[in-house]
Design goal:
eight-stranded mixed β-sheet, globular, mainly beta, Neuraminidase, 265 residues, single chain, four-stranded antiparallel β-sheet
Length: 265
């Protein structure tokens, strides 16, 4: 996030050089790890003021967007075409992070405060809070497994209770046996967890049961039309229900992309 460059850059670069960039040496990759690319289907308008931290498709086909930065953080809903429908600001001390909807509830994390805000998914009104240890980065719901997956910027993901956000266990994400650090925004689709890798244009697809990376997705072909700033990176993954397509966004990006993940050439 905005204050993480020095913290995470070295760990992420190490993870990438040891694993995600192993495409330069195919013999180091197991056959089960797919090499995919983000194929752009459509470019859509997005709010360039949004320091995007969470992205999710609503039940009626619109979007939830969670944003960060102290004094700027908010949660809002908008149409795919870009019309804003509703918005709520976070308390000024909070740096907003990942979001996920579970039935009539929407959870929103904060970065350093150890606080998750529980909201009415329709009105966005705050209806409660929960506490967790350490930093909060990304969040996604696995309804069938009755759990929420939580990231904190390390190589670990946490399994959380969807009602209370009480931590159940942690597991390490690995690629070819090596940990993958910098796991950021998350999207759960069935048994898969998709994760942005912080400061990069890479997305990893993770087996939610084993923690093993099953695909590396290169999203470098997406034009980053944000103003020149090292913080303005790819961040935001939202699966489009009933399809094999996703929306991808970024921090302060003026565009959002509808994509599918195709085999790399």
């Amino acid at each position: 996030m905005g204050h993480r460059e020095a913290l995470s850059a070295l760990s992420v670069i190490a993870a990438l050089s040891g694993g995600l960039l192993a495409g330069c040496a195919p013999e180091s990759s197991t056959p089960s790890v797919e090499h995919l690319r983000a194929e752009v289907i459509e470019r859509l308008p997005f709010d360039q003021t949004s320091f995007t931290q969470g992205l999710e498709v609503t039940a009626d086909g619109n979007l939830y967007v969670g944003t960060g930065q102290e004094g700027e953080s908010r949660l809002y809903t908008r149409t795919i075409a870009g019309e804003e429908l509703a918005s709520v600001d976070l308390d000024p001390q909070f740096f907003g992070e990942g979001i996920t909807r579970i039935d009539d509830t929407l959870w929103q994390l904060t970065w350093l405060d150890g606080t998750a805000i529980r909201r009415n998914a329709e009105t966005l009104e705050e209806i409660g809070r929960a506490s967790y240890q350490g930093e909060g980065w990304g969040l996604c719901s696995r309804t069938e497994a009755d759990e929420v997956i939580f990231s904190d910027g390390t190589e670990e993901l946490r399994r959380m209770d969807p009602e209370t956000l009480e931590e159940r266990e942690r597991f390490t994400v690995t690629l070819d046996g090596e940990p993958v650090a910098g796991l950021n925004e998350l999207e759960c689709v069935g048994n898969d967890v998709y994760a942005n890798v912080f400061t990069t244009t890479d997305i990893v697809r993770i087996d939610a049961e084993t923690g093993e990376v099953t695909a590396r997705i290169d999203a470098s072909a997406l034009p980053n039309n944000a103003t020149d700033d090292p913080n303005h990176v790819l961040n935001g993954i939202a699966h489009i229900p009933g399809t094999d397509e996703f929306f991808l966004a970024g921090k302060r990006w003026p565009d959002m992309y509808r994509v599918r993940f195709a085999q790399a050439d």
